[in-house]
Amino acid sequence: MESLTRPERIFRFGQFEADPARNTLTRNGVRVKIQEQPFRVLILLAEASGEIVTRETLRRKLWPDGTFVDFDGSLNVIMKKLRAVIGDDPDNPRFIETVPRHGYRFIAPVSSTEIPTPTGK
C-alpha cells in the first residue's frame, strides 16, 4: 500500500531553519519561540517563495469556513508577530514583502531539503 503523505521538508533562509514536521524554527541552531499561526504563515510563504500569497489564500489556510474573526486585524497581528520573530522590517524587508492590496511575498532566497521518512508496509 502506498503512502499518501507528503515528504517532510525543512526550509532554510538567512540564519533560520523552519521544520514544519516538528513545528520548530531555529536561528543559527538555537530554537526560536514562535506562535502557531505566525509559524503557519511563515511555512506558507516559504513554500511559495518568490510568489505572492494572497490575503484570501492566507484566510482560507488559517481559518476554516464558518470561523468568525476580524480577518484583516488578525492577519495584521500575525504578520507583525512573524516579522518580530525573524527580525524583519516591513518598510525595509529582508524576508517578507507586503504587496499592497494583494498579499505577501517571501523575497529572501529559500532552500528546502526533503527529509527521508520511513515507509510502513
Give a brief outline of the structure.
Helix content is 30%, strand content 27%. It is an alpha+beta fold and 121 residues long. The strands form two sheets. It has a five-stranded antiparallel sheet, covered by helices on one side. A three-stranded antiparallel sheet has the order 5-7-6.
In round numbers, the mean pLDDT is: 87
| Beta-strand fraction estimate | 25-35%
Which stretches are poorly predicted, pLDDT < 50 over at least 5 residues? Answer: none
**Range of helix content:** 25-40%
Decide which structural class fits the backbone. Answer: alpha+beta
Q: What is the chain-wise order of helices and strands?
A: EEEEHEHHEEE
Calculate the terminal CA-CA distance, rounded to whole Å: 7 Å
Radius of gyration: 15 Å
Number of helices: 3
Main β sheet profile:
5 strands, antiparallel
Number of strands: 8
Strand order of the largest sheet: 4-3-2-1-8
What gross morphology would you assign? globular
Summarize the topology.
Layout: E1 8-13, E2 16-19, E3 24-27, E4 30-32, H1 36-47, E5 52-54, H2 55-62, H3 71-86, E6 96-99, E7 103-106, E8 111-115
Antiparallel strand pairs: 1-2, 1-8, 2-3, 3-4, 5-7, 6-7
What can you see in these coordinates?
By secondary structure, the protein is α+β, with helices and mostly antiparallel strands. It contains three helices and eight strands; from the N terminus they run ββββαβααβββ. It has helices spanning 36-47, 55-62, 71-86; strands spanning 8-13, 16-19, 24-27, 30-32, 52-54, 96-99, 103-106, 111-115. The strands form two sheets. It has a five-stranded antiparallel sheet, with helices on one face. Strands 5-7-6 form a three-stranded antiparallel sheet. Strand 2 and strand 3 form a beta hairpin. The radius of gyration is 15 Å and the shape is globular. The model has no long low-confidence stretch (mean pLDDT 87).
